[in-house]
């Protein structure tokens, strides 16, 4: 049962980052692996973005504790989702 609960929580947190975060794609001009893929940042701007940021922040905290995200090497405000948790 705990495995199912963890799996569901992981999926919800990932979905929250993808839904509420601002996605940034790599520019494709570099072959450095650390720059490829989609990076996410905290939503900002208006009152609606502030509400979204609460969900985003909570999901990022959870995923960080689970080892399911990595921070960008040059911009710690950008995160990328990992497929597997650190064991």
Strand content: 15-25%
Give me the secondary-structure category.
alpha+beta
Averaged pLDDT: 85
- Helical segment tally? 2
Strand element count = 4
Short description:
This protein is an alpha+beta fold and 87 residues long. It has two helices and four strands, in the order H-E-E-H-E-E.
Describe this structure in words.
It is a single chain. This protein is of the alpha+beta class and 87 residues long. It has one domain. It has helices at 2-20, 47-66; strands at residues 22-25, 38-41, 69-71, 79-81. The strands form two sheets. A two-stranded antiparallel sheet has the order 1-2. The chain has a two-stranded antiparallel sheet with strand order 3-4. The longest helix is centred in the middle third of the chain and has 20 residues, at 47-66. The mean pLDDT is 85.
Set down the secondary structure blueprint.
Elements: H1 2-20, E1 22-25, E2 38-41, H2 47-66, E3 69-71, E4 79-81
Antiparallel strand pairs: 1-2, 3-4
Name its key features.
87 residues; alpha+beta; two-stranded antiparallel ribbon; 2 helices; globular
């Amino acid at each position: 049962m705990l495995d199912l609960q963890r799996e569901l929580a992981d999926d919800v947190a990932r979905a929250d980052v993808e839904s509420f975060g601002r996605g940034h794609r790599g520019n494709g001009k570099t072959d450095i692996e650390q720059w490829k893929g989609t990076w996410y940042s905290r939503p900002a701007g208006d009152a609606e973005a502030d509400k979204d940021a609460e969900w985003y922040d909570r999901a990022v905290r959870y995923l960080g504790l689970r080892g399911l995200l990595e921070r960008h090497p040059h911009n710690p405000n950008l995160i990328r989702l990992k497929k597997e948790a650190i064991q």
